[in-house]
């Protein structure tokens, strides 16, 4: 009888451990903690989350995850599983890494200068546009078109309301304090329209 109880307890403990591991792999609505803060920080860096980083996986965080998943061609379920986390971390390394963190008011802690610019938006789906930038990179979110006389190509930027980006394209109408922000779809570009933004040169 005692042996049966020990076996039963062992099975329950093993099941609990497996469940804990499964939960740890997926970050979902309702969860709290530093793992949620990490996801929120990456979403904020990349321009998908505009709320503060509070470590609470609520409605706005879920919507930001869904928007990120859609932009990367992932399954849109609002949950951060392994594939979504990998995609977030990959983008973070490319645009948001190297220790450039945002302060509590959403401004990078380290930058060389800040410019106030007139921003428009574009995508590869726009009439007359191709799939590649002037330097040969694939046109997608995180790429921006600039006037190289003002911002040299290859410069890393942080743009309010958009996120981290790289100056990697040019355009005939993009002169002086004008900047064109690439999006993954024409609908997103149209939704952005034209805005005045602050551009932090990193």
Automatic annotation (TrEMBL):
The keyword Magnesium does not apply. One of its GO terms (cellular component) is outer membrane. Residues 1-24 form the signal peptide. It comes from the Bacteria. One of its GO terms (molecular function) is hydrolase activity, hydrolyzing O-glycosyl compounds. InterPro entries: 3D_dom, Peptidoglycan-bd-like, PGBD-like_sf, PGBDSf, Resuscitation_pf_RpfB, RlpA-like_sf. GO terms for biological process: peptidoglycan turnover. SUPFAM superfamilies: Barwin-like endoglucanases, PGBD-like. Residues 35-88 form the Peptidoglycan binding-like domain. Keywords: Signal. Residues 144-202 form the 3D domain. This is 3D domain protein. It comes from Veillonella dispar ATCC 17748. The lineage of its organism: Bacteria, Bacillati, Bacillota, Negativicutes, Veillonellales.
């Amino acid at each position: 009888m005692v042996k049966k109880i020990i076996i039963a307890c062992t099975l329950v403990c093993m099941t609990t451990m497996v469940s804990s591991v499964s939960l740890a792999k997926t970050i979902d609505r309702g969860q709290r903690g530093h793992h949620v803060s990490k996801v929120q920080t990456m979403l904020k860096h990349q321009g998908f989350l505009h709320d503060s980083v509070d470590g609470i996986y609520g409605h706005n965080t879920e919507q930001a995850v869904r928007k990120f998943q859609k932009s990367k061609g992932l399954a849109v379920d609002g949950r951060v599983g392994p594939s979504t986390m990998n995609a977030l971390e990959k983008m973070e390394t490319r645009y948001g890494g190297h220790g450039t963190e945002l302060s509590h008011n959403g401004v990078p802690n380290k930058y060389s200068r800040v410019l106030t610019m007139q921003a428009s938006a574009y995508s590869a789906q726009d009439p007359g546009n191709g799939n590649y930038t002037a330097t040969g990179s694939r046109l997608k979110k995180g790429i921006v078109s600039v006037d190289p006389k003002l911002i040299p190509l290859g410069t890393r930027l942080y743009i309010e309301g958009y996120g981290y980006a790289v100056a990697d394209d040019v355009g005939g109408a993009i002169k002086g304090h004008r900047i064109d922000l690439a999006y993954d779809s024409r609908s997103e570009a149209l939704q952005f329209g034209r805005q005045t933004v602050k551009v932090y040169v990193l």
